[in-house]
Structure formats: C-alpha cells, structure tokens
Amino acid sequence: MESEYCRTSELKAFDDTKAGVKGLVDAGITKIPRIFHRSTLDDIDSSGSADDSKLRFPIIDLEGVDKDSALRKEIIDKVGNASENWGFFEVVNHGIPANVMEEMLEGIKRFHELDVESKKEFFSRDYLKKVVYNSNFDLYSSPSTDWKDTIFFQMTPHPPTPQQLPPTCRDIVIKYSQEMTKIGNLVLELLSEALGLKSNHLKEMDCNEGLVILGHYYPPCPQPKLTLGSSRHADSDFFTVLLQDHICGLQVLHQNHWIDVPFTPGALVVNIGDLLQLITNDRFISVEHRVVAQDIGPRISVACFFSTLLVPKPRLYGPIKQLLSEDNPPKYRETTVSAYSDYYKSKGLDGTSALLFFKL
C-alpha cells in the first residue's frame, strides 16, 4: 500500500471537491485521509505542555490607556515585556463591543456551514481576489494538511465592495474590519512606545496599511491525535489580532513548552509577526504556535493580519535605524513585504522560520 500512496493526487482529489475538511466530516468519515497525518509524531508531542505558574500567559488590561499617562506607561511596559519574552499576549478592555465579536464569530460559522454549492462561488487559490474560500493556503507545499477550512477577506487598503462579500456575514465583516483598524492603530502605538520610539513610528512605516481577515473553521476530528488544526508556524505579517471562541486549542511554544492560550471572555490575542521581528532586529519575537485538533467543535477563530502582503509595495523593510548601535548591528537584510510573503508561501508551514532566509 505504501507504494500506491500518491500524495499529490490525493491532495488534488481533496481540493477538487471544494468542500474542504467540513465536507469530509459531513460525509461521515471515521478515519482521516492520509494527507492529514503528521509527517512526524514529534510535531505533535515533542515538547509536552507545562503548568509551571511562571509560564502564565500574559493578559494585559487596556482600561484607561488613553486617559492616564502613568497607567499608559505601565501598560506599555507590559506590552514590551510580553513582546520580547513571549511574542504573544491577550488584551482585555480594548473597546470593541462584545456583541460585535460574538456576531463576527457567528458570521464566520454561518458561512462555513452553508451548503457546498453556495460556498463554491468563493472557492479559489488566487489570493489577488478580495474574497477567497478554501482549505489550507499551502495545500500543495506543506508536508501535511491541516484540519481546517478558511475564508479570506482582503479589507484594506482596497476593500471589496459589499456585493463581493458573502451575504451571510457581509455586514459584520465590514463592521469588524472598522473595529480592527482602530485596535490595530492602538497596538502599533503601544508597540512603538515600548521600543522607545514616537507613538506614530510604526504607523508611519505603514505597518497597519494592509488588513487581511481570515475566518477559520476547525470541524471536530475523528482522529485528533494524528493531525493538527494548524501546523506549527510563525506569522509572516507585522502583527496579528486573533478572536477565538470558547473551544481552546491554540498553543504557543514558550521556553520549549507548548503553552495553552487561555480563553478569556472578551479578550483578543495579539502576536508579533516575522516582519516586526525583522524590523525590531529581534527585540520583539515572532513565536511559533499551532492549533491542536479536537473531537469537539467546530472551533471558530478570526485572525486579522496587519501587512500589505497581498498589495505589492516597493518599500524596503530592514532593522529600524534608531534601534541599532555598535553593540546591536543589523541582523537582517532589507526586503519588501511581497518578497517576504512569496518566500513564506512557497516554503509552506514546514516547521522552520522564514526569517532564517533573510539573516545577514
């Protein structure tokens, strides 16, 4: 049987259904196809998990961040520490209404639970389109396939028309995008100040110019120990803001342990992306993370990527000069966002960092 297994043809057969992972679950499978099997078991269990209280995931309260300068400094210190040591943190009291977040999760769930024919209208692997639905952006390049389906929305700087968005989530995607633009601006101010720069420094570098929203759907898996919802990877953008539902599963690799990211009602998860690690010359770290597969669900999450990865720009990004010194010389060569993104996509989620390719 080993010699008869042709991964490429099985990938194509899966892709051609346009029904995604949900289609497999709806068909009532009890064993997952081989394309979803991890290439090594170490990918799942190598580090185990840790309960050490010193490894508690950072949660930062933003209440009063714009009203009290002493409090703002405390918050900036926490953001800086989390960005340097974890690359991840949660924020609460961020100003986005709870009903908007709940409706966004519901809207993504509604889309993925449409009949296959309705979803096929949006099925594509052309990421220049404003709205794209498929399963696994790196389906043909990664060593193994992840147990999730995704809908992509390219929202800024050139948003889709309302008519281009699925009716099931049209209004909330537009509203949520507006809210994310506000939170993105605030996060960039705090990150800039945590670096000792002016609050608008990262905004002036266009780190918030592009916004792509990914609505992930992780169906229940009949053999969760054989696969992952998302393979271990770091994000290729400047930073990501994630909304997740109550079904946990996101884990961060911290001090060689997989740490569960807690579900905190009303919280958003913020993580540093590769491009921010590059321009901060490794001051802030882009950390590997993954989503474990589970036999419950579906799990819904909404990831907002801040980067112009889908809108090619000529601007070159390298380590910020104000952060460099004789003792801290540049560690990376300059690159455009699109060049970084192209390399990241061609490499796929193979467990290695795309940053290595750009090291000096």
List keywords for this structure.
360 residues; 29% helix; 18% strand
What does this structure look like?
By secondary structure, the protein is α+β, with helices and mostly antiparallel strands. Helix content is 29%, strand content 18%. It contains ten helices and twelve strands. It has helices at 7-17, 20-26, 42-45, 69-85, 98-112, 116-120, 170-194, 201-204, 274-279, 337-347, and strands at 59-61, 88-92, 131-134, 149-156, 211-218, 228-233, 239-244, 250-254, 257-260, 268-272, 289-292, 299-306. The strands form two sheets. An eight-stranded mixed sheet has the order 1-2-10-7-12-5-4-3. Strands 6-11-8-9 form a four-stranded antiparallel sheet, with no helix packed on it.
In brief, what are we looking at here?
With 360 residues, the chain is α+β, with helices and mostly antiparallel strands. The protein has 10 helices and 12 strands.
